[in-house]
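S.,

Sequence below, as promised.
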Amino acid sequence: MKRVHPDFRRAMQLLEDGRTREAAGLADALIESNSERERLDGYMCRGMVFEDGGDGIEIDLKKSLDSYRRASLIAPGSITFMSMARVSLGLGDYSEAYKFLQLSRSYEVTPELLLGFALYFELSYPADPEKAMDYYFKAAMKGRFAGFFGYSRVARASGRRLKAFLMDCLRLLTGPFIALAIGARARYQF
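The prediction came back faster than expected:
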């Protein structure tokens, strides 16, 4: 298991607390390190800082994408490519997002990646509600609440109210058991 640098852990806590500027300072310090592992942590943190913004730091998806790209050069993997896909979707660059989703898939298929594909098929032009619903369903069956909500949203938007209602019922029935079985991971998103 990868050991996380204490400054990275602290930066993640600062981001959760809304202290983005301090987290950005820690990210910059990690990026300046001679250690490749610390630079990776710094670029991932910097990507998150610019992806979400806050505390006097404007959202800058291009800077975020560049940071994640640099992280992927150090350690290509499912998380780095999934992060690049998420930001590319935010930028409206659907072809790049799909490419990064495919690269992420080549490393590992996680429920969060399934949510990424679902969002891609929901947002891209032309949208493909059937594929979006299929991926949302797969993520829901792996215990991600976002899969249930996404499936219902797409079903309603495409006029399939009965399917949306049934998915909502399934979520209400299974939600407590999912929460008990896998805890906070049930709330993970793309």
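The chain is about 75% helix and 0% strand.

Coffee later?
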